[in-house]
Amino acid sequence: MAANPVLVDSSFYITLSRRGFDPLRALAVTAMERDLAICGVVRCEVARGIRNPNIRAQFTRFWDVMVNVPTDNRIWTSAEELLWSLDREGKTIPLTDAIIACCALRIDATVLTYDQHFSFVPDLKTTDRLD
Length: 131
Fold this sequence. Notes:
Elements: E1 6-8, H1 10-18, H2 23-31, E2 36-39, H3 40-47, H4 53-64, E3 67-69, H5 73-88, H6 95-106, E4 110-112, E5 125-127
Helix pairs in contact: 5-6
């Protein structure tokens, strides 16, 4: 695929679901033109809030065909460095967001998110809409 992948943040899934929209349906259109990515942090954050086992199974099947960015030691080291640097600048972001950001940076992905914490991460591309 020509365009950079899109790593879908938890806030996208959660916000659309709370607004009564099916995030998987919205993402299916984008998946026809761009690779979609996920990491373990996003899977866990979203899955824990899904009450219906059948819906959770739909999400799992969808996630299983996305590009998975593993959180190996290099990701943890990158997150450690990122958090340390941001703290020195007086910017604080959650550990989970740092891991997600480092996963996106690893594969040169744009983060699809409604979370403003990602704007603090240098060189990270973000968007809040599907084009």
